[in-house]
Amino acid sequence: MRGHSFSQFIPNELPKGGFEELLKLFFELLNYTAGDANEAIAWMNELDKQYKLTSDEYGMGDFIDDLKKKGYLGDDDQNPGGFKITSKTEQTIRQSALEEIFGKLKKSGKGNHNSNISGLGEEKNADRREYQFGDSLDQIDMTASIHNAQINHGIGDFSMTERDLEVEEKDYKTITSTVLMIDISHSMILYGEDRITPAKKVAMALAELIRTKYPKDTLDIVVFGNDAWPITLKELPYLQVGPYHTNTYAGLELAVDLLRRRKTHNKQIFMITDGKPTCLKEGTKYYKNSIGLDRKVVNKTLNMAAQCKRLGIPITTFMIARDPYLQQFVRQFTETNGGKAFYSSLQGLGEYIFEDYIKNRRRTVR
After folding, report:
1. Is there a single domain that holds both residue 127 and residue 154?
2. What pLDDT score does 164 carry?
3. 108, 141, 172 — which closes off a domain?
4. Mean pLDDT for all residues in the chain
């Protein structure tokens, strides 16, 4: 199921002109149509009729032809006469989300997360020192060490002692494994507010950020409704809300299982949700209660938060709802895990996640 929210339309804000202007609108519509190219084009045709997006020199048919020529659009074999987006379009949507939410970030090679500590690590720096017991062999600069031995003992009768060895210092780097949990329960489109599209944009931007700036970090994406399951980066543009309740426990359980497989010391969970847990799976049946805070559901969810704390996995909750009793649950959940919580608007969601991921600052929920 999919819902749409509508706001006052301002015609002057629509792009007018050639391919590049129309392409931006096409990408934006793809976010709202869950990657359905045919629906996005239908919307563009309708907007063109009402607000004259195109001209006599460049029409919507020309735009579609250019989309196909430039590799953004392909024929849909399962829908004769229809179109589907390509992998190039999927990547461009992620890059657009990154630019929109985080600004244009330059690719920075091996990036990772720098620390002001020297020692065992990955990146060599300019510091040199004598060998000390316990230094690993790959830290020894053999060229410099041989040079030292020749100076200290002469070339004719070559010998090398421990004092001749020279060690290269390395900058310590942290590698982080992150699981991003996205709530796809029905409430994410209720009450005339589209919450799933901003959540998708944030996920795509975060994935693109890690891919370009922190390539050694890992990101797994988990969606949760009645159940929880992992999705790939390629599936993100097509993500839709379903007729689901909110099984937060299942999402956390899967996130922990994914992080256990990662051979990194730094692990974290980011959870985007707009509500309370309302569902548990017991065998093949579902226990559901959307009224208030069901103690059975809440207690099991809090137990999982405590388990994450014991495993050293902090949970940062991004709550895109401001109901007092929901905030009360999030506060209790956060205290149990020792993590953090942000009560974010849809507009500020990306900036919050960016700041928390990059700067890793602690914030206290009050």
Report:
1. yes
2. 82
3. 172
4. 81
Q: What are phi and psi of 312, to 5 degrees?
A: 75, 30
Domain that holds residue 162: 118-172
Per-residue pLDDT tens digits for 219-234: 999 999 999 999 998 8
What token pair was written down for 141? Answer: 């600069």
Q: Where a domain ends, among 154, 172, 190?
A: 172
Select from 197, 189, 218, 194 the least CA-distant residue to 206: 218
Running DSSP on this structure, what letter comes out for residue 106?
P
pLDDT in tens, 111-169: 333 434 333 444 455 567 777 776 777 778 888 888 888 888 877 777 888 888 888 76
Neighbours of 95 (CB within 10 A): 16
Number of domains in the chain: 3
The phi and psi torsions of 274 (rounded to 5 degrees) equal -125, 10
- Same structural domain, 259 and 133: no
Q: How many CB atoms lie within 10 A of CB 92?
A: 17
Average pLDDT in the 341-363 region?
60
Segment 47-63 shows an average pLDDT of 89
Count Cβ neighbours within 10 Å for each residue of 111-144 and write b for 16 or more, e otherwise.
Answer: bbbeeeeeeebeeeeeeeeebeeebeeebebeee
**What's the length of the chain?**
366
